[in-house]
Amino acid sequence: MIKLLKIEFKKILTYKIFWILTGLYFIFLAAGILLAEFMINNMVDGMNRHLPIPLPHVTIYFLPWVWQNITYFATIRYVLIFPAIIIIILITNEFTFKTIRQNVINGMSRAEFIWSKMLIILLISVAMTILLFLGTAIIGISHTTGLTLALILEKSSFMAGFFISMLTIQVYALFFGFLLRNTGLSIALFTLYSFIVEPVLYFFLKSPLVHENGISTYLPLNAVLRVVEYPSIPVLTKVMGISLQDSLSLSACAIPLAYAAVMIGIVYLALMKKDL
């Protein structure tokens, strides 16, 4: 395992685009998290112009709700697209520069090659989860009074939801990259599916034109987004009695993981049968 990781790190160090996209990902992630409260309150102000009783401003950085809120904003499709594109580039470059063929000639099996990519995906997911956990803890502690260990850790299980979302979206990207083997085509089709095809299909399946069904729940990308489907806004519970999501759902976590397992299996079979 260490040997495979060393090989992957040598490749990554030479990919400037990897570091550029990683930097952009951190910028968009930080900007989204830090501006989230401001944007929500702008929406509240807009709603208050049409309500007889104005809604109070929302605070999203207080413990314990900060865990769910930051996880939600860190797993919207506009943020998750960055790690997905990074993985697509890492995969397709193997075919573009024939490094996959050279690795196999040097003694690496095809199964080890897939495993090496999964190790990178797993490592990125773990590293990002740890960084987000630490960042969220700092933000929450700095905005909350009367701290106790129980309060700090309450709802921190939402970080597991971030890990699952990060892991599965990268596996989806790996699937596109391995099957298409072309960087531009893979990124274009993945982006097209993520931002146009599936959203249109989702709203069509939810429209009155279609017999009531739950198919939209099982669309691949929507399954990832549903792991942490809503932010936690206590004012909605207090004022309107609305509770959107209190905790992670086992079934919601299982669906994208099942998709990821199927995609890995398809990639494995395709790589074993196709020429390099």
Structural class determined from secondary elements: mainly alpha
The count of domains is 1
Mean pLDDT over the residues: 85
- Total DSSP E strands: 0
Helix content: over 70%
> Which spans of ≥5 residues are poorly predicted at pLDDT below 50?
none
Number of helices: 12
Shape: globular
DSSP strand (E) fraction? under 5%
List the helices and strands and how they pair.
Layout: H1 2-12, H2 16-48, H3 65-74, H4 77-96, H5 99-105, H6 110-143, H7 149-153, H8 158-180, H9 183-206, H10 220-225, H11 234-240, H12 250-273
Helix pairs in contact: 1-6, 2-4, 3-6, 3-8, 4-8, 4-9, 6-8, 8-9, 8-12
Question: What would you say this structure looks like, in words?
Answer:
The chain has helices at 2-12, 16-48, 65-74, 77-96, 99-105, 110-143, 149-153, 158-180, 183-206, 220-225, 234-240, 250-273. It is mainly α and 276 residues long.
Highlighted features:
276 residues, mainly alpha, 12 helices, globular
In short:
The chain has 276 residues and is an all-alpha fold.
